[in-house]
Structures are given as C-alpha cells and as structure tokens.
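Example 694, ligand MGD.
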Amino acid sequence: MSAQPHIRHSTCPHDCPSACALDVEVGGDGRIGRIRGSSVQTYTAGVVCAKVARYAERVHHPDRLTHPLKRVGPKGSGAFARISWDAALDEIAERFLAAEARHGSQAVWPYYYAGTMGRVMRDGLNRLTHAKKYSRFYSTICINLAWPGYIAGVGRLMGPDPREMAKTDCLVIWGTNAVATQVNVMTHAMRAGKERGAKIVVVDVYRNATMQQADLGLVLRPGTDGALACGVMHVLFREGFADREFLAKFTDAPDELEAHLQTRTPEWASAITGLSVAEIEEFARLVGARKRTFFRLGYGFSRSRNGAANMHAAASIAAVTGAWALEGGGAFHNNGAIFHLNQAVVEGADLIDRSTRALDQSRIGAILTGDAQALQGGPPVTAMLIQNTNPACVAPDQNRVREGFAREDLFVAVHEQFMTDTARIADIVLPATMFLEHDDFYTGGGHQYLGFGPKLAEPPGECRSNHEVICALATRLGAAHRGFEMSARELIDVTLRDSGWGGIAALERVNWLDAQPPFESAHFARGFRWPDGKFRFKPDWARTPFSHNGLMGPWRDLPKLPDHWTAIEEADDEHPFRLATSPARQFLNSTFTETPTSRAKEMRPSVMVHPQDAAAADVADGDLVTLGNARGRVRLHAKLFDGVRRGVLIAEGIWPNSAFVDGQGINVLTGADPAAPFGGAAFHDNRVWLRKAS
Ligand SMILES: Nc1nc2c(c(=O)[nH]1)N[C@H]1C(S)=C(S)[C@@H](COP(=O)(O)OP(=O)(O)OC[C@H]3O[C@@H](n4cnc5c(=O)[nH]c(N)nc54)[C@H](O)[C@@H]3O)O[C@H]1N2
Ligand SMILES: Nc1nc2c(c(=O)[nH]1)N[C@H]1C(S)=C(S)[C@@H](COP(=O)(O)OP(=O)(O)OC[C@H]3O[C@@H](n4cnc5c(=O)[nH]c(N)nc54)[C@H](O)[C@@H]3O)O[C@H]1N2
Ligand code: SF4
Ligand SMILES: [Mo]
C-alpha cells in the first residue's frame, strides 16, 4: 500500500441484508487496504462486520483463481491445466450446443445464486437462459419460506423503516443471529437501548452472540415459533393488550383468531416450545405493555418445514397489539418491494418462454440424479454453467448432489473466485472478478438504500466479470439480445431508468439512493396491501403475491390460522436429536472459508451439544462424534455448551467438505424435500442420532 491511500466508495456485494455502504482504501499501486462502514449512510452508520473490514485478505489472496482451467484428471480429482479464455469459452459453447442437439435446449441448466448481490452480475445469467430457451432457474434455497410467510399477512414485501429500530421501546430480534449475520441491526438496537431504555428480546434455538446482548433471551425448540406466537397472542387477548380498534379496522378475522387462540394457552405453548409458562407470559406482557414494539423477523426461524407458517404467526402478533400504527413499531422482514426494480433488460425478460421448465435450485441432487418428478418429465440435465454459488457444498441432500455432479455425461463449467467444492468437480473453471473490480449496483434487504459499487481496481491475472463471460458465450451460442451489446454501466443505467430511479448519474452522485417510502405506506396506515386493506390472519397462500412455481409440498395441511404446524422432522427413538445448522460469524455461507483469519477464528467443524446429552453419550468436549440420519453421516468435533437445549444440536457454518475428517460436509444431513407452500430448504429442521466416533 502506498503512503496515502485514497478513500473510495462502494457497497458490500455479499448475501447479507445489511448491504453496507463502504469506504475503501485504495493504494496508489491499486492494492486494497482497510474497509470501513460509511458513517454518512444512515443505516450502515459507520459499522461493518470484521470479515469485510479485512477484505484485503480476500482480494489479494494467493489462492485466487486467475486463469481458465480445464480438467485433466478424473472428475473431482483437482487435476487441472491452464488454458486460454478462447479455448475455455469455445469448449463451453461446443458442449452446450452438443447437449442441445442431443436432448433439446432444456438439457442445459444455467445455475446461479447470490454470491454477489449485484443486480447486473447476479441476474444476468437469466438473459442467456431465456435467449437460448434453456431450463429456467427456480430459486428456492434461501427466501422461499420466509418471504411468503411475511407477505401472506401484510400483502407485500416491505415494512417500517428499519432505522426505526432505534426509536422503539422494545426490539424483538426473532430467528436472526444479527451480531453474526447483519451486524447493523445491533447498531440501531443499542441506540434504542441507550436513548430510550428499550428492551431487547431475542428468540432463537441457542444462546448465541445476539442473545447475549438481550434483556430477555428465549431459547425454544427448533420449529416451534408458531406455538410461541400463539401463546403470546393468547395472553395479549386474555390480559387486555389486544388493540380491538386496530383489529376491527385493519385485520380480516379478529374474532375467529381470538376464539381459535382460546386453547393456545401458555401451558400449551410451553409443552411444545420447551419455554416455561413464565417466560411466555413475560414476553407477552412486555410487547403488550410496550405497544411501540419492533419485530425484526429473520430468516433462521423460517428454515423449517413449517417455516412459512411460523413467519406468518410471528408477524401476526404486531397486528394484535396494533404496533404498526406507531413509529418504531410493527414487524419488518425485508424491503424487496420498495425498490420496484424493472430488470427486464438485464434478465432478457422479453425472451422468456413460459413453456420451458423452471428447475428447483434446492432439488439439484434429485435433478442431477435423474429424478423424473424433479425433472418435470423433461430431458436430463447434461450441461451447466454455474456462477456465484457453491452447490457442491451449500445445497441440501449433499450425497445426492455429489452423486449427480460425478456423472460422466454431465458437463459443468464453474465461474468462481476460488477453487470451491463446486469448482473442484467442474470440467472447466473460469476466474471471476471481485466486486471492487467490476461495476454493479445493489439493493438492501434489511434497509432502504440502493447502493453503487463501481470498479475501483484492476482484477488480477485474467479474471473476467460475470457479464463479460455471459456476453462472450452469447456470441458463440448465437444468442441475441440488446443486453449482450451493453456494458455493465449501461445496464445499471437502463435498469435504474426503467425502474424510475433516474439512471446511473443519480446513483453515482452520493453513491446511494434512499428509497424509503413515506410512513403511511411503510406502516400500512391506509391499510395492508390487500384489496380490502386488511392484514390476513387467515392466509390465502395461492393468492399470496410471490413469484413461484405453483403450490408444493404438503400445502393442503397448512394451518388456517396461526398455529403450531407439526410438519417438522420431529425427533424419534432412532434419531433423538434435532439439528440446526446456524450461520458462523466469520463466514458468509461458504464464502470467507478461504481467508486465514476467518478460518482461524472458526477453528474447525464442530457441533454444540448440551453437557448432559454429551455425558449420556459418553462424549467429552473436543471428542470426535458421528451425526447420522436416513440421508447420511458426518463426523465432526463436539463442543459442550449449556446454551443449547437438551435434545438439540447446533452446527455452525457451511465449512468446505474438505474441512471434515471424511470429506462429508454438514449438508449431507439436511433434506431437499420441498417445503410448503412454494418449496425451499429446511436447513435447521433435521432429526439425527449422535454417537461417539471411533
Ligand atoms: N447447512 C446449511 N446450508 C445452507 C444454509 C444454512 O443456513 N445451513 N444457508 C443457505 C442459504 S440462506 C444460502 S443463501 C445458500 C448460499 O450458498 P452460496 O450461494 O454458495 O453462497 P455464497 O458463499 O454467498 O456464494 C457462493 C460463491 O459465489 C462466489 N462469487 C462471489 N461473487 C462472485 C462474482 O461476482 N462472480 C462469480 N462468478 N462468483 C462470485 C464466491 O466466491 C462464493 O464461492 O446456502 C444455503 N445453505
Ligand atoms: N456471518 C454470517 N453472516 C451471514 C450469513 C452467514 O452464513 N454468516 N449468511 C447470509 C445469508 S445468505 C442470509 S440468508 C442471512 C440469514 O441470516 P439470519 O436471518 O440470521 O438467518 P439464519 O442464518 O438462517 O439463522 C439465524 C438464527 O436462527 C436460528 N434458528 C434456527 N432455527 C430456528 C427456529 O426454529 N426458531 C428460531 N427462533 N430460531 C432458529 C439460528 O440458530 C440462528 O441463530 O445471513 C447472511 N449473513
Ligand atoms: S455486515 Fe453484511 S453487508 Fe455489511 S459488510 Fe458485513 S457482509 Fe457486508
Ligand atoms: Mo441466504
């Protein structure tokens, strides 16, 4: 780094609700220095997580992929030879055309996710898909339980201004380990605590770092949040905390709800959740007495087979107390809808052929192993291009995923920054730029800013951006669309114009745009986003405005009103434990598992076990244990911790498969059966047995 680095501005590209506004040190030699949170942007408010603060370690990592590679040994052997870009792109095009000639265009399945949240770099692959009528991508792995659950109540994916967390009298942090996964929530929470004496409640399945900051921490059994919500609402009605005027004016079926809750007593909820009656009543009285309560609803408690119903039940509490009416009150999950982005040019929306199938991202194991239902009766998938995701590590039902990727008749090209588990099983590996090396823009899930991320540095070696790769392939594949003729900057500009945000110049001026809708709209003061303006206690899932592939899973059994839905994978005699696979603080999904400081802090794959459960299994702290279920087995080290409940296990982080003693990662244990109502993966809903390993 030269003596005086320039401070340049950017936006964090990672898959995190905080989408932080960044101040980046760029040296005269083009090297990146320290990264800090912008103190001017009001949500970031000067704070970023530690792993991004030390991003120089990732950008200038000696293991970054810098040249295209071609496999020269058996699949997965890791034996690659360097080739030119032209040779790599020619080969991908040839194999895609061959796949198309043999089985039709739908044998090709472009596959991507949110390794970058950049709207151009993340979503551009769809343009190639649509132009070529390849199999479309039904994205389910992260949001498919959470978003519909929230939208089913309020009608739209938006809510109170997240900065109002600093103006609340009670902040309920529900199913999100914010200290680890979106640190800025804590900035605003601490302000509310300091300036207003606000209480902080945390609802989770173990005593994590966020709960350690709480006034009231509730450790419930995984997948029982619907029961907790019902127990709380029972008390609210019983003790006169329900806002009957609000209920009459703004909700669909208050009387039916009240009658239904008669039997959902705290005693009933206690038996299901494992919480004491006193804990449930304390929580209810807190949010009842402090009407100005802000429910910050995370993703974690939706990653169960009953997760959509649980999300809806939790959001319903704010409709019983009428918290929505007050600044600093209401329930917030994500702000996706406020940006009203029109990405037609980036995604090639004009070319979509709805007669092509959309294959379910989370079912990649079933798809690649030829499951006829998962393939929707169509041809096998024989060629893939993968960008911004690491399915050979992060996707559920990993044994089937890896069996699928091992198929000799499957051609896989992976565009990556590092030699991930997925890159390792590829036939062609392409080196990708990082966010500081290309132009893009971002929207905040957990706040209300659009953010800019301009190119600030030259990429190492021969790295190319996603957009460059897609355009180069389009030429070779004979795919035509005006999006392939445009630069990334031009795509940002046209997208912002088409969305009513005035183009790239408006964004560049300050590096972000504040898209916060007015109070009346964000608080639904003129009604919730349904034709009659009423919050739905009785969801109509089929009519919930969420882009999906039709109703899936056991949707017919979804509860009619908020309830405990027994669809979870309950423990049984053979599998006495419930396992949640919660996020690791120093990783972000499978990213940062390559940086030495993150790895050193996370140490090694491990599972938290209650000391009494450990004693019963003759397991001591640090012992190697085997976890198993019908889907597979994993060996990792036990960590004794009394902050988990008896019968519950927590394995933090999506470590690379190679970090495990048997090369079998945690997702060997997670299931890919589609969850209701629209599919999605229940990563925290697994029954397993535990044994001391030899
Ligand atoms: N057991 C368990 N499994 C889980 C979860 C869990 O909680 N537990 N969480 C699930 C969730 S919520 C999600 S979202 C998924 C996420 O899983 P992934 O999609 O795999 O997540 P990331 O690690 O964010 O990103 C993947 C890759 O994108 C690459 N990348 C970043 N930027 C670019 C770019 O500009 N171009 C290219 N070509 N590549 C880029 C990174 O190097 C990284 O290897 O995992 C899911 N899997
Ligand atoms: N450090 C770090 N940051 C991340 C990520 C990461 O892996 N690491 N992942 C990123 C991504 S892709 C996403 S989608 C977001 C997700 O971030 P969050 O919204 O925080 O969601 P999760 O990471 O799935 O889990 C959050 C918490 O839910 C808890 N949980 C699990 N099951 C239940 C349950 O049944 N009930 C309740 N009440 N709690 C439960 C978990 O123990 C965990 O503490 O974070 C992003 N940020
Ligand atoms: S908190 Fe999230 S958005 Fe902010 S810097 Fe860290 S990973 Fe990026
Ligand atoms: Mo996610």
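Summary: The pocket of iron/sulfur cluster (ligand 3) is lined by residues 12, 14, 16, 18-20, 48-49, 52, 182-183, 588 (CB under 6 Å).
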